[in-house]
Amino acid sequence: MTNIETIKKFATKVLASESIEIGVPLVLEEITFIPIIKHEIPRDERDYLSLSEALEEGACKITDKGTEVAHILFENISEFPILIEEGEIFKGQGTQDRMCVGTIKVEPMKTVEIPVKCVHAPHHLSSGAAFGYGGKAGRGMLKELRSLKFSHAVNKAPASTIDQSRVWDQVHYENVMADVADNTKYTENVEKRRERAEKIGKKLKFPTNTVGVVVVNPEGDVKGLEIHRTPHNFKVRKDGILESIEANISWEPEGKGSFKNAQEKVKELFKKISELKKGKEALSQVEISGLAINLDGVSGEAYTTTFYSGVCPSCNSQKPRQKACPNCGFLEEDMDEIAYMSMY
User: What is the reported pTM?
Assistant: First the structure.
């Protein structure tokens, strides 16, 4: 269960520059990127795999149940936990493409049902069909998804029961706006955005130990906040972050220049996060572990969890990523930390 106090504590540390700080702004075509820099790096920097890493390394098996659209089977066959972010797309191999509706961590050697929505209509289901990585949904889709998730959390309804027709409507709208040839296939839209995002990403050089970024447009609007636990995880997801905001930002210079007080905007956002109220602004969700967050003008999802080292802090031997060391019996301290947070 995601801990709201851990989220608030993280935001408070950012405001106080206590082990985590707001970095110097980077400006690209009038868009300001504010890095969030972490000074205390975990003993094991790579303590979970992203979905793209897991698929690239053959660390998981994802299969279509074939009997329903709203769930797929995900098997973690690695020693690392695998973190799947809200809005990440499972690209069907002979079956419907699906989008994960919320952030989920799959523990090593576990098989779980992942709640999803179809982003490829119409297309038949195929029992046992596999999935590849399809990228990340855009901000328009995420905004719709978050609105639906928050209303479902209020009513304690499962995330998988989110209205599929609303998702399809958003797929069609975004594809038309992006001038995609096949309006039923959302991954074509994502691939177009990914090409542009990769070019943009090459121009942005984030400082060492960057774990997150806040994106501010020339008008002073926060267009995205993404936080990950370690610099490694941020580096892996950097292009995916740009990919998801790419369609919602005007990259062409308009003569306005970058927003002058972007760092103050970032502080205002973290101040709101540091004062989150459970129930009113942050709600637990059914089927997914992250908190649905809905602040004044800002929405998102945050996920906290406890990670254990692959090397025993006491006897320095290799061990499973679990609390107890099987070699010397040492018990690692339980410390809840932010694994992932996305807001705008």
Answer: 0.92
